[in-house]
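Format notes (please read before filing issues)

Several people have asked whether sequences and structure tokens are stored in separate files. They are not. Every record keeps both together, in the order shown below: the sequence lines, then the token lines. Line labels are part of the format and must not be stripped during preprocessing.
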Amino acid sequence: MKIINTFQIVKVPEGIDCSVKSRVVVVKGKRGTLTKSFKHLAVDISMSDKETLRVEKWFGKRKELAAVRTVCSHITNMFKGVTYGYKYKMRAVYAHFPINI
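Then the structure lines:
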């Protein structure tokens, strides 16, 4: 069964500039700039003002509606990335025993 309209709103935190153009989201913060393209998903992404970002899906089935929450989570993680940053650790596993690199 198709749902007529579903949407979710993401608040842009202070100190972060966010822009959307044709499903490409650009987030700028004190730790740099992140760009992510959501062109492979059939959702509408728009900004009504500088502080709110709206992700919307019209006439979607259950699996398609899940993309709305996924896009919002990605954008929220981008906000964290330009504010706090990320630390990556790599581990190699050989014959069941982990090796620190």
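For reference, the curators noted about this record: The CA atoms of residues 65 and 98 lie 39 Å apart. Helices lie at 62-83.
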